[in-house]
Amino acid sequence: MTCMKIIFSQTRRNRIGGLFGVALFSGRFFHAELIRSESSALPVIHHSKYVCELPSNHRFPMAKFPRVLHFLLQDQVITEEQVWIPEIASKDLLSGVHSEDYLNNFLNGRINEQEQRRTGFPWSEGIVQRCRYETGGTVLAAEVALQRGLACSTAGGTHHAFPSYGSGFCLLNDLAVAAKYINDSSPRKRKVLIVDLDVHQGDGTAFIFKEEPSVFTFSVHCGKNFPIRKQQSDLDISVDDGMEDKDYLSTVADHLPWLLQTFRPDLVLYDAGVDPHWEDELGRLRLTDQGLYQRDLYVMKTAVSAGVPVATVIGGGYSRDIDKLALRHSIVHRAASEVWRECGM
Ligand SMILES: [Zn+2]
């Protein structure tokens, strides 16, 4: 697929104003600690506090977050000028999605052992900070995408978190917080399409927006994978174990174009989880690196060509080999850089 050059033929600034800048944030970013507005290249959202200490031998690959940025810089996919630093998500921002009780308990360490087991994480001050910066990063990616057309965080995608409890390595639902913020921060309720291609169903996000017509949840996931008890998204596509690149890509292509045409979102939030990869320890599908790259390119190009801005999060990915995993997570940023270039953004 090629970009619609006719749309992108104006100067960059005019095009942004014309294509993405209508009724947006008028140049203000509310959730940035450091703004790199001097760079006209793809915005990448990262904070050094996306990471925290975990007990040794914990199976969550926490160390992957700084390594994603490391590889993007080392491989000259991006430069440091492209890195935007998000603010910590305030309690007020989080309360758009999470219950008062849950936030008070989670922020202050009043989470019992059973609740901690369900999340997969022992509670710590560090994990609270990490989750709040990660959520701030997704919110900033959404804000920046509305102005620049495309923005990518180096974390995010904690889609199993519910309003009043955490689950499956997810403590705060960053996608939901960002969608709700974008929804509510303009007089006209902006519409958000959440494209969740993590191998696991986005059950928390589906639950949160089940009665919210201005947020559409689209999840493609492996039916036999976690969570056992699925929620109902606006569109769920459950695929069988062992699916390979070709069938997977055609499944996504069967639905994304008509969703964009009929729902007409103001923003796509894209969860580019890499756990559908054949080597993933928790996925059950058989996508290759090339398949993930084609998938990410397709999603971003299709939306951007339709004039819809995209903010991406990295979603799930599980491997003991942190560098291999971080490289796999950097596929979405590499694909985004290609979209940015090809579409003349
Ligand atoms: Zn996952």
Fold and architecture overview:
Helix 8 (203-208) links the parallel strand 5 and strand 6 (215-222). Strands 1-3-2-4-9-8-5-6-7 form a nine-stranded mixed beta sheet, sandwiched between helices. Helix 2 (64-74) packs across helix 11 (322-329) and helix 6 packs across helix 7. It is 39% helix and 12% strand. The chain has one domain: 3-Layer(aba) Sandwich (Arginase, Chain A). The protein is built from twelve helices and nine strands. The radius of gyration is 18 Å and the shape is globular. This is Histone deacetylase 12. GO terms for molecular function: histone deacetylase activity; hydrolase activity. Keywords: Hydrolase.
Helix-strand layout with pairing:
Blueprint: H1 12-20, E1 32-34, E2 44-45, H2 64-74, E3 83-86, H3 91-94, H4 100-107, H5 113-119, H6 125-148, E4 150-153, H7 174-184, E5 192-196, H8 203-208, E6 215-222, E7 235-239, H9 245-263, E8 267-271, H10 289-305, E9 310-313, H11 322-329, H12 331-342
Parallel strand pairs: 2-3, 2-4, 4-9, 5-6, 5-8, 6-7, 8-9
Antiparallel strand pairs: 1-3
Helix pairs in contact: 2-11, 6-7, 9-10, 10-12
The structure holds zinc ion.
Residues 198-200, 273, 275, 316 line the site of zinc ion.
